[in-house]
Amino acid sequence: MTLHFKEATVFYTAEGDGDTLVLLHGFLEHSGMWQPFISSLSKTHRVVCIDLPGHGKTDCFGYVHTMEFMAEVVYAVLKELHVFKAHFIGHSMGGYVALAFAEKWPELVSGLCLMNSTAEEDSIERKQNRDRAIEAVKTNHELFIRMAIANLFWPKNRTLYAAQIKETITEALKTPLQGIIAALEGMKARPDRQHVLKVAKFKTLIIAGEKDPVLFYKSLLRQAELNNCAIVSFPDGHMSYIENSQAFLKTAMHFIEKI
């Protein structure tokens, strides 16, 4: 399905009935990443998957896609679907967007799960790396994507999941240059949102990879402890929905069940 928003097109899907679960993909991904899990999750919930700006079938809106703007896009989709309460699971960048959404519309959130994501802002070093990434994208779009995707997996898993990595790269190569740069700029500019977890009146959960090459595992443990957030650890890297797919599905189903 599509939504016309600010003179551009937003793509999303909605499957199943029941309480709403919103699934938000990460950087260089799109809503199709959730496909292996929808049949199970949609048995009890209405599962909404959204292509975030500049990714998948959703248009680019400008040269910077802030997390706040992406959250506005999510809000517009939920308004179109008449959704007044939802659980959110966001992978990596999708987690940043979910946090921005929860900060602005906490009354619409039943639960917030950050998968391979963080509520902390980028460090100075990380912001510098974002700038280097932007230059690398401008220099060689394809090489940047191939390296970026492979580097998200625990090195020992790169052979085991070679087919999935190849497929992920193939899909990522469809991401327009403008969409990549706009997302990098938006992630670089995002503020620290640990307070969203700390004051939350809804369920919060962090799914962390012990061998995540992008995020510091010990930092996520500390973040969960300081902000009264539940945490589930998986033994592999940043791509838990591939590297630990069955464990992720089990965790997700437990997270959205009614208490």
UniProtKB/TrEMBL annotation:
<dbReference type="InterPro" id="IPR029058">
    <property type="entry name" value="AB_hydrolase_fold"/>
</dbReference>
<feature type="domain" description="AB hydrolase-1">
    <location>
        <begin position="20"/>
        <end position="244"/>
    </location>
</feature>
<protein>
    <submittedName>
        <fullName>Alpha/beta hydrolase</fullName>
    </submittedName>
</protein>
<keyword id="KW-0378">Hydrolase</keyword>
<dbReference type="InterPro" id="IPR000073">
    <property type="entry name" value="AB_hydrolase_1"/>
</dbReference>
<dbReference type="Pfam" id="PF00561">
    <property type="entry name" value="Abhydrolase_1"/>
</dbReference>
<dbReference type="InterPro" id="IPR050266">
    <property type="entry name" value="AB_hydrolase_sf"/>
</dbReference>
<dbReference type="GO" id="GO:0016787">
    <property type="term" value="F:hydrolase activity"/>
</dbReference>
